[in-house]
Design a protein that fits this description.
By secondary structure, the protein is α/β, with parallel strands linked by helices. 39% of the residues lie in helices and 17% in strands. The longest helix is centred in the middle third of the chain and has 29 residues, at 459-487. Belongs to the glycogen phosphorylase family.
Length: 872
C-alpha cells in the first residue's frame, strides 16, 4: 500500500549522545577521518546501508544500540574528543586570522551547484565539485565565506543502463528533512523567506536551508513552499532542468534571492556582512543588480551604484566556448524586470544593456549572462593559465582596441580539497613520516612548494600502497558492476563472470567525467583491434574503468555512452574494461586512488581546467592527458605523459581524432606499459615508483584547493575589499561622473604627432631613444589620461608581442591648437625586430586596470607610417 503522506521521524538521542547530532549536521565529517570513523562504529551495517550518511544513520540505528552506546565509556571518550576537536576547529584561529593587513570581513560565494558530499547530491560535475572544494578549503583556512546556492528537490539525475546500454535517468525526490540541513528561522521561530516579484502580480517565494560546511555556512534556496503556485514551486526542481524561462527564474532566484538570503542570514546570526561577492560562473550574475538596487534605495543613482558594486565583485568564468554560456531572449529578460516585476526601481533598458553582446558577431537580441557578469565585476578570472588566455581572447570584443593579453581577466588555477580526495591509506603513509597534525596542515593549507618527506618513504611501501588501493578498486568495481547488471535485467546465474573482472596486479587506467562530445569518451575506441590487443596483451595487459553521465537532453552524449558500454559488454574484453553507471562523489573517492593512470583526452583548448587528474595525482596516480587546462600548465615528464595534439586549423575533426588516438595507443604500447611492468634489481618497478614519488612530492602541493583559495584571498578578495572600502557614496558618484565625462569627450582624444631621436632603422641593444608625442585631449585634462609608449618584439605582420608599457610625462601645453606635449625614454632592451607605438588611456585612481574603461586612442595609420615605428 502507498502512504498518503510522508513524515520524517527523528530519533531521540540519549543525553550522553547528544553531540552526535551536532557532528552529523556539520559536513566536516565528510572530510574528517576521526568523525567519519566514529559514526561508522555506531553501527557498521547501518552505516553502509545509509550510504555513509550520519543523518540517515541516526535515523535508522536501533534504540537499544543507542542505549548501549550511552553506557559505553570508551565510545563516550571518543565522542567527547571528536566533539571537542570540532569546537576547536570552529572557533580557533587559522591561516586567515594570522594574515597581516585588513582582509575582507566576509566573502559571499555564489554557485548554481555545490558538491560537498554524496549525502547532499546538489552537483552535476566539475563546477559543483570545485565549488564544494572551495568552501571546504575556505573553512580549513578560516576564510569567512558564506556559500549561496539553490536546493534542488531532485538534485541531478541518477543514471542506470538499459539492457542495450542506453542511459536511463531517474530523479529521486529529496526530502530536506532527511538531509544534513536545518531551516534558517526568524527570531519568532518561523521559517525565513525571500521573495521575488514576477510579471502579472505573482510572487516567487523561497525558504532558506542551511548546510554547515565546517566553518562555512551554505545557504540553499528552496522554492517548493506552499505559498507558491505549482509553477513557482517547481523552479528549484532540478539542476540544469527545464526550458529557458525556468532557467532564468532559477538564476534570478540564485542571484537576487541569494543576496536577500545573505542579508537575512547576517541579520539573524550577527555574521559580518560580505565586503566581496564572488560569482562562480555567470548563473548568479543577477546578484549585481540586486546590490545596485540596494544602493539606489539609499540614494545613489544607477551609474554610481554600478561603480560601487563593481568594486567589490569577483567573477570567475569556467567556460572556454561561447556555446557554454547561458543566453536568454532579451524580451524574456525585459518581461521579468521593470515596473510590474522585479527591481522596478531600475530602468529595464539599463538591465538589458548590461547583458548586450555589443562586440562584432554578437547577437543583439540575446542577453548574455557572462557578459553581464564581466560588466558587473571589476575583477575576473579564468581557472587555469591556459583558460585565462582563452577567456581573454573569447571576451576581447568587450575591450575594443586592446590586445587580448591586456583584457582584464586573470587566472587562478583550480585546486582540489585533499582531505576529501586523498585515500585514508595515502594519508596514513604520509602521517607516519611527519605526524598527523603536520600531514593535515600540509593537505589543507598547502603553503609549501614541495613535500620532501615523500622522498623518505621506502619503494616497497609505495608499491604495497598502490596495490592495496588497486585491490580495493577491484572489489568496488565488481560490486557496482553486479548491481548495474541486475538493474539491466540480468539474473544471478548470468553473472558468475563478474568474479573475474579486473585484476589487482594489472595496470589500471581510469576515465570518468561528464560526457559532452569535446571530452571524447570514445577516443579510446578509435582503433578497437589495437585497444583489444592492449587489454589482452599476454605479458603487459591493461584494464580500464570508465564512468560518466551524459546530459539528459544530449542524445549525442548518450550514444557515446552506449558505444562504450557495448564494447565493454563484449565477452572477450569485459574482464578488462568496465563502464560503471551513476558516477558521483562516492564512486570517485574509490576510483581516483585505485587507478595507476588517469586518462584525459579533450579537444584542446576546450577543457577550462579539469580537476579529476589532480585528485588522482594526490593519490599517486600518474596522468596521461592532452596538454589542456591545468596539465598544460604543470606537466612534467616526472608526473606522467602528454598526448600530442593535432589542433592545427587545417586538420578536420575526424583526422584529428585519428592522429590523437594513434598517439594515445603509441604511448601506452611503447612507454607506459613497459615502464609499469619492468622490474629493477629489487624486484620492483623502480622507475614507475619514482614517478609516483615525484608526482606526490612536487605536483601534490600545486593542486591543492588550499593553494587556490589562498590565491583568491591574496590576488582577488583582498584587492576587491580594498576597492569596496574606497568606493564610498561620494567616490562612487565622482567615478561615475568622471567615466561619463570621459566617454562623452573621448572622440576628441587623438595622437597627432610622434617623433623619436633615432637616426636610422637600426640601433644597438641597451641604447635609449627619446620619444616626443603630441596628443589632443579635447575637453579632457592631463589628469584624466595616461599617455604610454608600448614596445616589444614585432612579428611578421608588425604586431607587438610580449609588450612593455612605459608612461610618458607631460612636458608642455596646450599649444595654440590645444595639443599637449609628452616625452619619455624608450629602452631598446631586446634584439631582433623591435617596434613601438604610443597610446592614450583614461586614468583614475579607482580603476583596477588601464583597460577597465574600454577606451584607447592610438596613432592613425597615416601617422604610424610617417613615424617609422619599426626597427629591425
Amino acid at each position: 500500500m502507498k502512504a498518503i503522506r510522508r513524515l520524517t521521524v527523528r530519533p531521540v538521542l540519549p543525553d550522553p549522545l547528544r553531540p552526535l547530532s551536532d557532528l552529523a549536521r556539520n559536513l566536516r565529517w565528510s572530510w574528517h577521518p576521526e568523525t567519519h570513523d566514529l559514526f561508522q562504529s555506531v553501527d557498521p551495517e547501518c552505516w553502509t546501508a545509509s550510504g555513509c550518511d550520519p543523518v540517515r544513520l541516526l535515523g535508522t540505528v536501533r534504540p537499544a544500540r543507542l542505549a548501549e552506546l550511552a553506557e559505553d565509556r570508551r565510545f563516550l571518550r571518543r565522542l567527547t574528543a571528536v566533539a571537542d576537536d570540532l569546537d576547536r576547529y570552529m572557533t580557533g584561529d587559522r591561516w586567515y586570522q594570522a594574515q597581516p593587513g585588513r582582509l575582507p570581513a566576509a566573502v559571499a560565494y555564489f554557485s548554481p551547484e555545490f558538491g560537498i558530499t554524496a549525502a547532499l547530491p546538489q552537483y552535476s560535475g566539475g563546477l559543483g565539485i570545485l565549488a564544494g572544494d572551495h568552501l571546504k578549503a575556505a573553512s580549513d583556512l578560516g576564510v569567512p565565506l558564506i556559500g549561496v546556492g539553490l536546493l534542488y528537490r531532485h538534485g541531478y539525475f541518477r543514471q542506470s543502463l538499459s539492457r542495450d546500454g542506453w542511459q536511463q535517468e531517474h530523479y529521486p525526490v529529496l526530502d530536506p528533512h532527511e538531509l544534513p540541513l536545518v531551516l534558517l528561522k526568524e527570531t519568532d521561530g518561523t521559517p525565513a523567506h525571500v521573495a521575488l516579484a514576477l510579471p502579472g502580480g505573482r510572487e516567487l517565494r523561497a525558504r532558506v536551508w542551511l548546510a554547515q560546511v565546517g566553518r562555512v555556512p551554505l545557504l540553499m534556496l528552496d522554492s517548493d513552499v506552499e505559498e507558491n503556485d505549482l509553477g513557482e514551486r517547481g523552479v528549484t526542481d532540478r539542476l540544469y532542468g527545464g526550458g529557458s524561462e525556468h532557467r532564468l527564474l532559477q538564476e534570478m532566484l540564485l542571484g537576487i534571492g541569494g543576496v536577500r538570503a545573505v542579508r537575512t542570514y547576517c541579520r539573524l546570526t550577527g555574521h559580518a556582512a560580505p565586503e566581496v561577492f564572488h560569482t562562480n560562473e555567470g548563473h548568479a550574475g543577477f546578484l549585481g543588480l540586486e546590490r545596485i538596487a540596494e544602493l539606489c534605495d539609499k540614494g545613489l543613482e544607477f551609474g554610481s551604484a554600478l561603480e560601487a558594486v563593481r568594486a567589490g565583485t569577483v567573477f570567475t568564468t569556467h567556460t572556454p566556448v561561447p556555446a557554454g554560456i547561458d543566453r536568454f531572449d532579451r524580451e524574456l529578460v525585459a518581461r521579468h524586470f521593470g515596473p510590474d516585476s522585479e527591481l522596478p526601481r531600475i530602468d529595464v533598458e539599463r538591465v538589458l544593456r548590461l547583458g548586450m553582446e555589443t562586440y562584432p558577431g554578437g547577437e543583439p537580441g540575446l542577453f548574455n549572462m557572462a557578459v553581464m557578469g564581466l560588466r558587473l565585476a571589476q575583477r575576473a578570472n579564468g581557472v587555469s593559465l591556459l583558460h585565462g588566455g582563452v577567456s581573454r581572447e573569447m571576451f576581447s570584443g568587450l575591450w575594443p582596441g586592446f590586445d587580448a593579453d591586456e583584457v582584464p581577466i586573470t587566472s587562478v588555477t583550480n585546486g582540489v580539497h585533499a582531505p576529501t580526495w586523498v585515500a585514508p591509506e595515502v594519508f596514513r603513509l604520509g602521517a607516519r613520516q611527519i605526524g598527523v597534525q603536520r600531514a593535515e596542515d600540509a593537505l589543507s593549507v598547502g603553503d609549501s612548494d614541495r613535500w620532501d618527506s615523500v622522498a623518505d618513504i621506502a619503494d616497497q611501501d609505495i608499491w604495497e600502497l598502490r596495490r592495496t588501493l588497486r585491490e580495493q578498486l577491484v572489489t568496488e568495481v565488481r560490486q557496482r558492476l553486479r548491481a548495474s547488471w541486475r538493474q539491466r535485467g540480468a539474473g544471478a546465474a548470468e553473472l558468475g563472470w563478474i568474479d573475474d573482472v579486473l585484476d589487482p596486479d594489472v595496470l589500471t587506467i581510469g576515465f570518468a567525467r561528464r560526457v559532452p562530445s569535446y571530452k571524447r569518451l570514445t577516443l579510446m575506441l578509435r582503433d578497437r583491434d589495437r585497444l583489444t590487443d592492449l587489454l589482452l596483451h599476454p605479458e603487459r595487459p591493461v584494464q580500464i574503468v570508465v564512468a560518466g553521465k551524459a546530459h539528459p537532453a544530449d542524445d549525442g552524449g548518450k550514444r557515446l555512452v552506449q558505444e562504450l558500454v557495448r564494447f565493454a559488454d563484449d565477452p572477450r574484453v569485459r574482464h578488462r574494461i568496465v563502464f560503471l553507471p551513476d558516477y558521483g562523489m562516492g564512486m570517485a573517492q574509490k576510483l581516483y586512488p585505485g587507478c595507476d593512470i588517469w586518462l584525459n583526452n579533450p579537444l584542446r583548448p576546450l577543457e577550462a581546467c579539469g580537476t579529476s587528474g589532480m585528485k588522482a595525482a594526490l593519490n599517486g596516480c600518474l596522468n596521461l592527458s592532452v596538454l589542456d587546462g591545468w596539465w598544460d600548465e604543470w606537466f612534467q615528464p616526472d608526473f606522467g605523459w602528454a598526448i600530442p595534439t593535432a589542433d592545427g586549423a587545417g586538420t578536420d575533426p575526424d583526422r584529428r581524432d585519428a592522429i590523437e588516438a594513434a598517439a594515445l595507443y603509441d604511448l601506452l604500447e611503447q612507454r607506459i606499459t613497459p615502464r609499469f611492468y619492468e622490474r629493477g634489481a629489487s624486484g620492483l618497478p623502480d622507475r614507475w615508483i619514482e614517478m609516483v614519488r615525484r608526482t606526490l612530492s612536487l605536483l601534490g602541493p600545486k593542486v591543492l584547493a588550499g593553494r587556490m583559495v589562498r590565491e583568491y584571498v591574496e590576488r582577488l578578495y583582498t584587492p576587491a575589499a580594498e576597492a569596496h572600502r574606497a568606493m564610498d557614496p561620494d567616490s562612487a558618484r565622482a567615478l561615475a561622473e568622471w567615466k561619463a565625462r570621459v566617454r562623452a569627450a573621448w572622440t576628441g582624444v587623438s595622437v597627432d604627432h610622434v617623433e623619436t631621436s633615432a637616426a636610422s632603422a637600426t640601433a644597438e641593444l641597451g641604447s635609449t631613444l627619446g620619444l616626443r608625442v603630441r596628443v589632443n585631449l579635447g575637453d579632457l585634462a592631463p589628469d584624466d589620461v595616461e599617455v604610454q609608449a608600448v614596445s616589444g618584439r614585432v612579428d611578421s605582420e608588425d604586431r607587438i608581442t610580449d609588450a612593455t608599457t612605459v608612461p610618458l610625462k607631460p612636458a608642455g601645453g596646450p599649444d595654440l591648437e590645444g595639443r599637449w606635449l609628452y616625452e619619455g625614454p624608450l629602452a631598446l632592451d631586446r634584439t631582433g625586430p623591435f617596434g613601438y607605438t604610443v597610446r592614450v588611456l583614461p586614468a583614475h585612481r579607482l580603476l583596477a586596470s588601464g583597460a577597465e574603461a574600454g577606451l584607447v586612442a592610438v596613432p592613425s595609420d597615416e601617422l604610424a607610417q610617417a613615424a617609422g615605428l619599426l626597427m629591425r
